[in-house]
Amino acid sequence: MLVSIFKRVYQSGFLVLGIVGVFACQNNQKENPLTSYGNTAVAKDTLSYSMDSLRILSPYIASHEDQMDTSYAEVIYPKFEDSSLNQLVDQTILLEGEPDIKTYVNNFIEGYGNFVEENNLNYPIAWTKSTKVGLILNTPRLICIKNGTYEYSGGAHGNFFENLSVFDIENNRKLELNAFISDNKMKEFTKIAENIFRTKEGLSDTSSLANGYFFENGNFSLAANYGITKDGFLFHYNPYEIKPYAEGTTSIVIPYAQVEDLLTQKGKLYIDNLKAYFHSI
């Protein structure tokens, strides 16, 4: 007979660790399958930053036979000397309007605590939330930040997503795709992206996208999730967006050279600035 016991190891508050060196067993988390986009990192960062982190453990410990486990939430993120840049980083993490990173991790741990207290659990399972934020592009004018988050809160498997954000750091402004591509050129841009997608997926020009993909009415569409790299526009589809969970993520890069005629005037300035920077290093 399975026996599991919750022990309230702290009477109040949470255990806060500002380093990543203390880990729970976390038997449910086999790996954090966040994507690498290949050779997209810059050769030399222009903005100086250090990596900071916050980890909070749940006060509830699940004990079974000789094993113990607990829930945790963590965030690992770049920290700049410039507070305005840190606000941009916060934007990529606090997607549900949390006031700060501590609240972000606390909310998850409190949610687990409420779940434990409100349910009579025969076999409690620890939860996990791990957010890792990094720069995939770092230039004097533009940065691209990736938020990779893995979350497990029961069920057969955890879920993960990656969110990309592009910022003009001279104006501290997030840039949507139409800052680069004219609205009246978006259809042509999408067709170029579809050709690249089909080549990557091993599909012919006439192969149907209705089978094996979740595109609406079988028509290709751009991922809402876009970023920029040294070489081109990056579009990233998270699990369930266009494929089943088991198929994982899909990403494509559209080279700048293929879409030069589709750029807005502002977009041309951004890309010219980007190219000049990489030619100079």
UniProtKB/TrEMBL annotation:
<feature type="domain" description="DUF3298">
    <location>
        <begin position="182"/>
        <end position="256"/>
    </location>
</feature>
<dbReference type="InterPro" id="IPR037126">
    <property type="entry name" value="PdaC/RsiV-like_sf"/>
</dbReference>
<dbReference type="InterPro" id="IPR025303">
    <property type="entry name" value="PdaC"/>
</dbReference>
<dbReference type="Pfam" id="PF11738">
    <property type="entry name" value="DUF3298"/>
</dbReference>
<dbReference type="InterPro" id="IPR021729">
    <property type="entry name" value="DUF3298"/>
</dbReference>
<dbReference type="Pfam" id="PF13739">
    <property type="entry name" value="PdaC"/>
</dbReference>
<feature type="domain" description="Deacetylase PdaC">
    <location>
        <begin position="73"/>
        <end position="159"/>
    </location>
</feature>
<protein>
    <submittedName>
        <fullName>DUF3298 domain-containing protein</fullName>
    </submittedName>
</protein>
